[in-house]
Amino acid sequence: MVRVTVVGAGIAGLTTALYAVTAGHHVVVLDRTDRLGGRGTSQTVEGAPFGYGLHLLHRRGPLMKVIKKISRLPLVLAPPRLDRLHAVNIGPLRPRNNVRLAAQLRKDLRRADGSSEAAQAVALLAGSGVLRYDGRYVALQKQRLAVVGEGWAGLVGRMAAALDEVGVLIEPNCQVNAVEQGRVVLEDGRRFESDVVVLATGASQAARLLKPLDSEALHDVRPVRASTLDALLTSRPLSEKHGVIDPHEGAYIADLANIQPRLKLNGALLSAVMVERAGESVDERNVRFDEFLERTANGWQLHVVHQRKQTNITVQTTGTKPRYDQYVDHGILLAGEWVDCDHELADAAAATGKMCGQNIP
């Protein structure tokens, strides 16, 4: 049995802990906040799950497999539909009343033609702001990306409950200052002795903790920053649309209440994202974002029950990412969306967490 300290209680950290304890190791999880799940979670306000931008769960992805492994309670999932997703300058991505246009759009999407605005729109939404013509691109077209009825807090809650059942300690409010050959040093002076440390934090915190070992750690990992809005309204400014996507602006807005009827909301639950442009300031991007919101959801500000707006948040990373075992000789493993694997977003967090948990040296 190996003593394992997991730094970070997001999806990557919780997945690591689940697989490590299953392998027979003693596991402790440390998190700098008292809220599990990191940004891959949600908070219920007025009966609506508020997250940090739109999160779509891949029905066949690594995270879904983790949830099925630990919980028999079925998830209530609802996918955005192409006939109710609109692209700017096109309209519905699968029009019902124009056979010729529908056939052309279907052809463009099948070819993953990067010059097609329809393909760009699907890639932007599936990639959460990054144009990717990969598995998630195909999954969105096949209705395999879905809004979770209980919110992502429900997924995190299932993972936390599974860890609690097997006695894994999750310590909140732990600010980690340093990692030294299996020893984790906290800001308040406490030390956790272990054989292996798994860094399942965000990329910037991981780079800081790795700096004494490697001054160039994560140098080639680039954050994708964005402005986001999540808002509960008394009206439905998108009418019956599931969402509106503008590839030229690098933005999209969705109404989760339209996509997921099990939420049983009287008004809209909007979730919008606009990603940064090269050389653009945060203020410039937020001006564009406000203009996009006004164009696509005119008058939404007049009907707000609750809103959460982020002016500059990292939604994912790109670039050359490190292997999960790159620092194994120093007793450190890496897990997170920013670690190299065959998946993206929350599925990357779950996949790298599984790799760490199953390969504790």
Strand/helix succession? EHEEEEHEEEHHHEHEEEEEHEEEHEHEEH
Structurally, how many domains make up the residues?
2
Structural class: alpha/beta
- Give the N-terminus to C-terminus distance in angstroms: 10 Å
Overall geometry comes to globular
Give the name of the CATH superfamily of the largest domain. FAD/NAD(P)-binding domain
**How many DSSP H or I helices?**
10
Task: Report the CATH C-level class of the largest domain.
Answer: Alpha Beta
Largest sheet: 7 strands, mixed
Properties at a glance:
361 residues; alpha/beta; FAD/NAD(P)-binding domain; Polyamine Oxidase, Chain A, domain 2; 2 domains; 7-stranded mixed sheet; 5-stranded parallel sheet; 10 helices; 20 strands
Task: Note down, in words, how this protein is organized.
The chain has 361 residues and is of the alpha/beta class. The chain has two domains: 3-74 and 150-220 and 320-358, FAD/NAD(P)-binding domain, CATH 3.50.50.60; 81-142 and 222-318, Polyamine Oxidase, Chain A, domain 2. It contains ten helices and 20 strands. It has helices spanning 11-22, 62-70, 99-111, 117-126, 135-141, 152-165, 203-210, 256-259, 282-296, 345-358; strands at 3-7, 26-30, 43-45, 48-50, 57-58, 77-78, 85-87, 91-92, 145-148, 169-171, 176-180, 183-186, 191-193, 196-199, 221-233, 243-246, 251-255, 269-275, 304-319, 332-334. The longest helix is centred in the last third of the chain and has 15 residues, at 282-296. It is globular, with a radius of gyration of 21 Å.
